[in-house]
Amino acid sequence: MSRSRPKVVAIIPAAGSGTRIGGEIKKQFLPLKGKPIIVHTLQQFEHCSEVDEVAMAIPESALSDMETVVVRFRLHKVNKIIIGGKKRQDSVGNVLDRLTLKDSDIVLVHDAVRPFVETKRISHLIKICREYDAAVFAVQPKDTIRRSTGGGFFDQTLDRTSLWLIQTPQAFRAKLLIKAFEKAKKDKFYSTDDAALVERLGVKVRIVEGNYDNIKITTPEDLELGALILDRWRAKGIM
Ligand code: CTP
Ligand code: MG
């Protein structure tokens, strides 16, 4: 069957080892109010009608656990589970290499450990990406930010209004993301986000105002905060 609109594929890197949170269980599988974090995240994409497919990067040791989770929670859009790499960028790259994409298709990249990404916001990001080819969620810092290059003293206060905290999902035309990953590999350039790779092509990335709830579960206190956010979202009927 032919498609009339470009396909939208979400890449979910979930192959990290969660060193900052510690513990035995990898953080993407830790329960948040009884359900693994990764399931909360994947359900947001499952419920987003514009998303056609979900492809994941997973640590080799978690492959069978992940397959069980996909069946148990009926995550029908997950159609690829690939072994991740050493760094996040390697994991995303491994998945990207295995996708069959047309130039105009849209690829979203979203951290497995950001469960508070609302379905309607995913749809909004896709819409902006259709217009600008590259779009990322970001929020402005609430605190004053100073810089220190060492020695225990500050040397500069940065202008807060020009600073943005980068989140995921990030959305790109497939052609751009593939080219960006090829160039990064060639130049041995690494970044913790995908937009930085696309910018190296000289492409401008559109800022889409994000939501402060869209936290990345990174340290143990984020798990407690996540439980509070989930309570609030459930009370509002969002999740
Ligand atoms: N990730 C990945 N492959 C890696 C490293 C990270 O797919 N080699 C994923 C993580 O699973 C997570 C996302 O990238 O969903 C963001 O990474 P981060 O929060 O840093 O998670 P970890 O790398 O697992 O945690 P830490 O840095 O504390 O070890
Ligand atoms: Mg990491």
The N- and C-terminal alpha carbons lie at a distance of 33 Å
What hetero molecules are in the model?
A: cytidine-5'-triphosphate, magnesium ion
Counted beta strands:
11
**Number of alpha- plus pi-helical segments:** 7
How does the overall form come out from the CA principal axes? globular
Kindly estimate the percentage of residues that lie in beta strands according to DSSP: 15-25%
Q: Percentage of helical residues?
A: 25-40%
Mean pLDDT, to the nearest integer, reads 96
Low-confidence stretches: none
> Whole-number radius of gyration?
18 Å
Task: Give me the secondary-structure category.
Answer: alpha/beta
User: Could you give the order of strands across the largest sheet?
Assistant: 5-4-1-6-10-7-11
What order do the helices and strands follow?
Answer: EEEHEHEHEHEEEEHHEH
The largest β sheet comes out as: 7 strands, mixed
